[in-house]
Design a protein that fits this description.
Helices cover 42% and strands 15% of the residues. The protein is built from 4 helices and 6 strands, in the order βαβββββααα. α3 packs across α4.
């Protein structure tokens, strides 16, 4: 099976030559987000930009909150938001990082940072599922996103000693 972060089915949905079209991965942080979380997310994003192409700009908003309220009302660590099939509107991700200090106490700093990066990779996998118009069940989407997030964080871990 093809790596969904590298397949180019998105070319059917997106015209890169269209004026005003933006590509890439961007990060925005609430000012209260811990500096270690900010550093780790920025370094992971730099790694992902080097390895993968983001054909439609996606912004990750790293929030100070413990959880994000998903559209279905669930309290989650992260959520991907897009217009269902309108590829002219840039999608975005909300990522909760307010529980970092609690995670540090429970799991240690490296595992706490890895958990946040795991959620980031999980939500970015939903971006690639959406942009490539993959037809999966909701359970299939979640299983695939979990599988890829483990793979990506492991791939990243090979490039450094600590997240």
């Amino acid at each position: 099976m093809d790596h969904i972060w590298t397949i180019e089915d998105w070319e059917k949905n997106i015209d890169l030559t269209k004026e005003g079209h933006r590509t890439g991965l961007r990060m925005r942080f609430d000012k209260e987000v811990d500096s270690e979380v900010r550093r780790a997310c920025k370094e992971f994003a730099a790694f992902l930009r080097k390895e993968y192409f983001f054909p439609l700009r996606v912004v990750i908003y790293v929030k100070k909150h413990y959880r994000i309220i998903a559209l279905d009302g669930d309290r989650v660590c992260g959520t991907f938001r897009s217009t269902y099939d309108d590829y002219t509107v840039e999608p975005y991700i909300l990522l909760a990082a307010g529980d970092y200090n609690d995670l540090c106490k429970k799991r240690g700093k490296d595992n706490a940072l890895a958990a946040i990066l795991f959620t980031m990779a999980h939500e970015l996998t939903h971006y690639f599922q959406w942009i490539n118009s993959l037809k999966l069940t909701p359970i299939g989407q979640e299983r695939q996103a979990t599988k890829y997030s483990v793979y990506l964080v492991d791939e990243y871990a090979e490039t450094r000693d600590h997240p």
